[in-house]
Amino acid sequence: LCGLAARGGSGCVVLFKVLESSEDGAVVRDIDGAVERLGDDSHVPLMEWLGARGKEWYVYRNAIMMLGNLGFVAAADDVRRFLSHPHPRVREEAVGALYKMQGEAAVRDIQPLVRDRDKAVVKKAVTTLARLKCRNPFFLQALADLFRGGKDRDPAPDELLLVGLDAVAQIGAFAVDDVDIRDILVERLEAGGSMLNKLFKKRKAAEDSEVVRAATCGTLGHIGDQQTARSLEPFCKDASPLVRERASDAMRIIAARGQA
C-alpha cells in the first residue's frame, strides 16, 4: 500500500479498485491511511469515484470517509447530497465528513438527521451537534422529544437516551415550549422510580433502565440548580445503588457550583 501511495494519482486508482471489491474494515482502514499519504493527489480520483453511478453503498461510504479525513472542503457540496442516501451507513458517514470539512457551517445540513429512521444515524447527528454546542430550536426540540413520554411516541432505546443525555450535559440547560429540560428529566426520573407506574405502565418513561436513570442523575448534576438538587434528594435513597450514587454525586456537584 505504501508503494502504491508513492505512485501518486495512478496508485490512488489502484487502491480504489481494491476498495470496490471489499467491505472489510481492516482493508478500508489500511487504504484510508495510504490515501491520506497521497494528500492532494487523491482529491480528483476520490471526487470521480464519488460521482460514479451504480456503485455499491460501501463504495460511496468509503469515498466520503476519505474525503472527510482529508478535510477536502471543496467536496462538501458533493458529500451533502449523500445525507439522503438510501443506505444508513452512507448517511452516517456523510454527517461525520461534513463536520470535519465545515465545522459549525454544517449544522443546518446535519440537523434533519436527528429525526432519521436509523438509530445509528441519529446517534451520529446528535453527537456531532452536541460537539458543536448547537442550540438551534429544531435540535433542542428533538432532544426534548427524546425524553418526553406519550402515547404517540415510541419509547427511545437506551443507547439513544444515553447519547441524548450526554448531549444535554454538553449543551447546558434550555427550555422548549416554556418547559425547562431539567423539569423534563426530573419528571422522567420520578416516573421511572415509581413502583405504581412500573406496575401499571402508565407512562413509557417508567421503563427506563437503571443505567439510563443513573445517567439522568449525572446530566442533572451538570446542568441543575438548587431546585434540581432538591428534586434529586429522594433518589439518594433509591432502590438502585447506582442511582443512589449518581444522585448523591449530582447533588454535590450542584452544591459546589453554587459555592463557586
Task: Walk me through the structure.
- With 260 residues, the chain is mainly α.
- The protein is 67% helix and 2% strand.
- It has 16 helices and two strands.
- The protein has helices at residues 2-6, 9-20, 25-38, 43-51, 57-70, 76-80, 88-102, 107-110, 119-131, 137-147, 158-171, 181-193, 195-200, 210-223, 226-232, 241-259, and strands at residues 175-176, 179-180.
- A two-stranded antiparallel sheet has the order 1-2.
- Helix 15 runs antiparallel to helix 16.
- The chain is elongated and about 65 Å long.
- 40% of the residues are buried.
- Mean pLDDT is 84; it is low at 1-9 and 194-206.
Q: What is the topology?
A:
Layout: H1 2-6, H2 9-20, H3 25-38, H4 43-51, H5 57-70, H6 76-80, H7 88-102, H8 107-110, H9 119-131, H10 137-147, H11 158-171, E1 175-176, E2 179-180, H12 181-193, H13 195-200, H14 210-223, H15 226-232, H16 241-259
Antiparallel strand pairs: 1-2
